[in-house]
Design brief:
The complex is a heterodimer of chains A (505) and B (485).
Chain A (H helix, E strand, L loop, with lengths): L4 H5 L8 H20 L3 H25 L4 H24 L8 H15 L5 H12 L16 H6 L12 H4 L16 H11 L6 H17 L9 H19 L4 H15 L7 H33 L5 E6 L3 H12 L4 E7 L5 H12 L2 E6 L3 H5 L4 E4 L3 E2 L5 E4 L2 H10 L4 E4 L44 E3 L4 E4 L6 E4 L2 E3 L4 H10 L1
Parallel strand pairs in A: 1-2, 1-4, 2-3, 4-7, 7-10
Antiparallel strand pairs in A: 5-6, 6-9, 10-11
Helix pairs in contact in A: 3-4, 6-9, 9-10, 9-11, 10-12, 10-13, 12-13, 13-14
Chain B lengths: L11 H9 L5 H13 L6 H18 L5 H18 L4 H28 L1 H7 L3 H8 L1 H12 L8 H11 L4 H11 L4 H11 L16 H11 L1 H34 L2 H4 L5 E5 L3 H11 L5 E5 L6 H9 L25 E5 L4 H5 L4 E4 L3 E2 L5 E4 L2 H10 L4 E4 L31 H6 E3 L4 E4 L6 E4 L2 E3 L4 H8 L14
Parallel strand pairs in B: 1-2, 1-4, 2-3, 4-7, 7-10
Antiparallel strand pairs in B: 5-6, 6-9, 10-11
Helix pairs in contact in B: 1-3, 2-3, 2-4, 3-4, 3-5, 3-13, 4-5, 5-6, 5-13, 13-15
């Protein structure tokens, strides 16, 4: 397996903060990839020529087949001329792309293998490994090592910018794939959490929120206030470095942001005169209470309310996987309601597959389809249950990409759309479109790995080709019939008021 | 199955090769095509249309034509078998209708020629038909009266002449002009006998006196009276019909390029265009526009039924091995190579991006008479999202995909695909417990479409029925109902 060459060979370099360390490391990798790619272009030209003539021959054959009329022939030759001209033009401009040299092939394969199946055995090994490496923070994580190669290729100045122009502001730094270069202050639990979140081992707004709070609880437990500072002052900055690390793995979810904001307020409220261990215990208690109140009990309340809305004979449609919707469906089934479920799913995460599997194993009647069949499955549905990543304060739903399509189709088919959302996911933010605020996942996730290599595996070499792997989209409030949160049933227009209430108390 | 398919997997190319070789009988070619259609080894509107046209050409060539009725009957028989073999490929029925239309038209032209030469025979042979007509429909009597009055000597009555074509639909004008040219030389009864031909469309109405067969006895009579001249006429007719089919075939192969010819009228520079699945028609259209304009294409991948072809098209279709039906002429230069920025997205991201998209350009499987269309699954949601964002939806379709069928029973046009494309069978536990749905097509209602571009130009969806009237004879529209006598 290809490991980042720079990381291992470097001994314990004096550890700066994140900010200084990153560019340095990237720079080294740039050089590597550059030297690799520069050897290829000569070969490429020839190959391209050969391809071109072959294609032309093919078209000629094709026309013979159909006994072409004079007009057809003329058109054909014209088309060929245009094609030839375009080819010449391209040759003059010089190909911006560089083919993969033979020596790089190995790298690519390695990347493919490593990408193929890290998820299944990941969480178990994860904990062990972080335990051993976290203190130093220098050894590279053994997972998805080739990922470390991929992002720098994108950023190479000579190379074409593969970012989708409309979303350029969202790209930022590529997601961190190793703990190498993490700040010394970052707690091992947080180190592990960051990678788990990054690899979708911990996925979903609530789950990420809970996991973050639990990790921060451990941070606080092992925290010792340095001399000449006070806990409320220093702990906040200490947490900030943890948060920076988490952000570098994957942008924070709205719920995480809300929870962290709440925690920071709690820390700043700590009385300096209180003994440190007491203050820490209080904070840990507060975190536990927060999780219980805002997530666990909230989920129970929402579940109870939502189950009331499921009637015998219903055909419930849901999209992707939401933990709260899963709880609702399971609870309704336990209560003996007779209903069926349609799970609609999408590429590339296929989260719905897990939901469908879990429900089917319980014994529910489950139907599974992908986004393309949405118009068909909606015909029979009687209710749509959706989870939320966040609710905007203008009543829009911010959720897994594709949710808007489902809600729109439901609206068209006059099927009520019910959103289950804990109030911790409310945000005061407003948004008009899915462009300004969103998250871009690594485009490599779109490449399909099967026995046959996907044509997309060489997308980086194709000029002008971009892959867009958007994480979320925004569902207009008019597609949502009802929101269920812990305070009751509300129309989406009431979300801002509830949001105000929940932040004020 | 004849052994003609050889080593290569049977496909459109092997079929067209086999259907042209004289060694294989028409019957076995028909059976061959039927089995190919049933096994979906020929699929897609264009492939089906081409195969049908080749087969029908062979059928027409092989029939020993003594009269037109027999020929029509033969083509109808073959056509019905093909249509029932794969009723969802409406293009097959379309081509059968077109061929029938060609035969009828040639026959009518022939008869006009005949009647001008042997006018007395014409008048003798059908004394009763015009009378029937007069009783039957007021429309006809007006036309008849018009036909009597519209000799070149009476140009004053312009209003009637203007009104008549509208009443009859666009397929009238050529016949009326030909009539006008003969009207001077012929007597009035000849004119009415010609209009007895025009009365044939009405024969679909339930009326005991006018079964669809009423045409052929009339022809028989005229044939028996002039056997000699008719044999040569029949030969001419056959040649002309074959030529007509040849023209249809040419149209089929050129349709995509003709549609692409309109590209520059519809795409402006710096535009952001969304398309879905890999349609050759759309690819050619965009490529043509790319020769002059710079724009961005957002390509929804149509997972799981067509994503491989879509990916291949985006990367640059080096091999067509994803779909054997793609003939050699369909090897495409990738859009990216033409300088167009292509952004590949999963289908789910369509709504999120729609607000920045200027146009949605869709390919289609079939277009129905009301202007609705059957396209790859997912198209409906895309079109609806476009409608919600007031983004125009443009559908590219060859005229051969225009079907005179109305979508009364949509489910009969839908098809479910291989569920293993959604979940592989290797995931056995999952497949056992969960019902998996993989629809192949979506019906997109007409109100979601803003514009159709066919090889004849751009049309409003409401105008499509006029094109259908132009291309199909009313008596051929219901292929199933035609009595085989």
């Amino acid at each position: 397996m290809a490991t980042p060459p720079d990381a291992g060979s470097r001994p314990a370099v004096a550890q700066g903060s994140n900010a200084t360390e990153h560019p340095l490391e990237n720079g080294v990798q740039h050089q590597h990839t550059a030297s690799n790619s520069e050897q290829a272009p000569a070969v490429k030209g020839k190959a391209k020529d050969a391809n071109g003539t072959e294609n032309k021959k093919k078209t000629a054959e094709g026309s013979k087949d159909g006994k072409p009329s004079g007009k057809e022939l003329k058109e054909k030759s014209k088309a060929e001329k245009v094609a030839r001209r375009a080819q010449q033009k391209q040759a003059q401009q010089g190909q911006p792309v560089v083919d993969l040299g033979p020596e790089k092939q190995g790298d690519k394969d390695a990347r493919k293998q490593s990408l193929a199946g890290p998820d299944s055995n990941f969480p178990k090994t994860q904990h062990k490994r972080t335990g051993s490496t976290s203190t130093g923070g220098q050894k590279p994580m053994p997972f998805r090592p080739a990922q470390a190669h991929a992002p720098p290729i994108k950023e190479e100045p000579k190379k074409e910018n593969k970012n989708v122009a409309l979303f350029d502001h969202l790209y930022g730094n590529p997601r961190r794939s190793t703990v190498a270069g993490a700040s010394r202050d970052v707690h091992p639990a947080v180190l592990a959490l960051g990678l788990q979140i990054r690899n979708y081992v911990i996925c979903g707004s609530s789950a990420r929120c809970v996991a973050t709070l639990l990790a921060f609880k451990r941070v606080i437990e092992s925290y010792i206030t340095p001399p000449q500072t006070s806990l409320p002052r220093h702990l906040t900055t200490h947490l900030s470095s943890q948060i920076d690390y988490l952000v570098s793995c994957r942008p924070l979810s709205i719920s995480m942001g809300n929870a962290i904001r709440w925690l920071k307020v709690k820390i700043s409220e700590v009385d300096i005169s209180v003994e440190e261990f007491r203050a820490k215990a209080d904070l840990c208690n507060a975190i536990d209470n927060f999780i219980t109140e805002k997530i666990i009990v909230a989920d129970q309340v929402i579940t109870r309310r939502a189950v009331e809305k499921i009637k015998d004979g219903d055909l419930i449609l849901t999209y992707a996987k939401s933990s709260i919707v899963q709880q609702v469906l399971v609870e309704a089934y336990r209560k003996g309601k007779q209903f069926k479920v349609i799970v609609v799913d999408s590429r590339p995460l296929f989260e719905g597959k897990n939901l469908a599997r879990a429900l089917a194993e319980l014994g529910l009647d489950v139907q599974y389809s992908l986004t393309h069949g949405i118009s068909h499955v909606m015909k029979d549905a009687t209710k749509v249950f959706l989870g939320a990543h966040a609710m905007m304060s203008d009543g829009r739903l911010y959720s897994r990409v594709g949710t808007a399509l489902v809600a729109m189709t439901a609206k068209e088919a006059n099927v009520p759309v019910i959103v289950c959302c804990e109030s911790v996911k409310y945000t005061e933010r407003v948004a008009l479109d899915s462009f300004v605020h969103n998250e871009i996942a690594p485009p490599e996730e779109l490449i399909i790995h099967g026995e046959k290599s996907s044509p997309l595996s060489r997308w980086l070499e194709v000029p002008n080709l971009q892959l867009l792997n958007l994480m979320y989209d925004l569902t207009p409030a008019e597609y949502i019939t009802m929101v269920i949160d812990e305070s009751g049933y509300l129309p989406p227009s009431s979300v801002p008021f509830m949001q105000r209430l929940s932040t004020n108390t | 199955m004849p052994a003609a398919t050889g080593v290569t997997a049977p496909s459109l190319t092997t079929f067209t090769r086999s259907v042209r070789s004289k060694g294989i009988s028409v019957e076995s070619s028909t059976d061959n095509l039927i089995s190919l259609l049933k096994r979906r080894q020929i699929r897609g509107s264009q492939a089906c249309a081409i195969a049908t046209a080749y087969l029908l050409r062979r059928v027409v060539e092989s029939v020993k034509v003594t009269d037109v009725g027999r020929l029509i009957e033969r083509v109808q028989q073959v056509g019905q078998r093909l249509v029932s073999a794969q009723p969802r490929e409406l293009a097959i029925g379309n081509i059968v209708r077109r061929v029938l239309g060609v035969i009828r038209e040639e026959a009518e032209e022939d008869r006009e020629g005949e009647t001008s030469g042997y006018s007395d025979a014409g008048t003798d042979s059908r004394p009763h038909t015009p009378r029937n007509q007069d009783v039957r429909s007021p429309e006809h009597s007006t036309i008849l009266s018009r036909s009597f009055t519209s000799s070149p000597l009476r140009h004053g009555e312009k209003d009637e002449q203007v009104e008549a074509p509208g009443q009859w639909g666009p397929q009238r004008p050529p016949l009326l002009t030909s009539h006008a040219s003969y009207a001077v030389t012929n007597t009035a009864p000849t004119v009415t006998s010609m209009f007895s031909l025009l009365s044939q469309p009405i024969s679909n109405f339930p009326s005991p006196t006018t079964s669809p067969g009423s045409q052929s006895p009339g022809i028989h009579q005229s044939l028996s009276s002039q056997t000699l001249s008719n044999i040569t006429a029949a030969k001419d007719l056959k040649a002309e019909v074959v030529e007509g089919i040849q023209e249809i075939l040419e149209e089929l192969t050129q349709a995509d390029d003709q549609i692409a010819g309109y590209a520059l009228e519809h795409i402006h520079s710096n535009e952001v265009i969304l398309t879905h699945t890999s349609s050759v028609t759309v690819q050619k259209f965009l490529l043509k526009a790319a020769t002059k304009r710079k724009f961005t294409v957002i390509h929804a991948e149509a997972y799981p039924n067509n994503h491989e072809a879509t990916h291949a098209a985006a990367v640059g279709n080096v091999r067509g091995d994803f779909d054997e039906d793609i003939g050699a002429e369909k090897f495409q230069k990738a859009l990216t190579a033409a300088g167009v920025t292509v952004v590949l997205i999963p289908d789910s991201a369509v709504f999120a991006l729609m607000s920045r998209i200027n146009k949605v350009i869709l390919g289609t499987h079939v277009v129905l008479a009301n202007g609705g269309l059957v396209a790859a699954a997912g198209a409906k949601a895309i079109a609806k999202a476009a409608k919600v964002h007031a983004t125009p939806v443009v559908v590219l379709s060859g005229v051969y995909k225009l079907s005179p069928v109305y979508p009364f029973d949509m489910d009969s046009l839908m098809e479910n695909g291989d569920p293993s494309k959604v979940i592989g069978y290797d995931d056995g536990g999952f497949v056992d417990k969960v019902k998996i749905e993989n629809p192949l097509f979506d019906y997109v209602p007409v109100e979601l479409v803003n514009l159709y571009i066919t090889n004849l130009g751009g049309h409003a969806p409401s105008y499509l029925h006029c094109i259908i009237d132009d291309h199909y004879r009313p008596e051929d529209i219901d292929l199933d109902k035609v009595d085989v006598y």
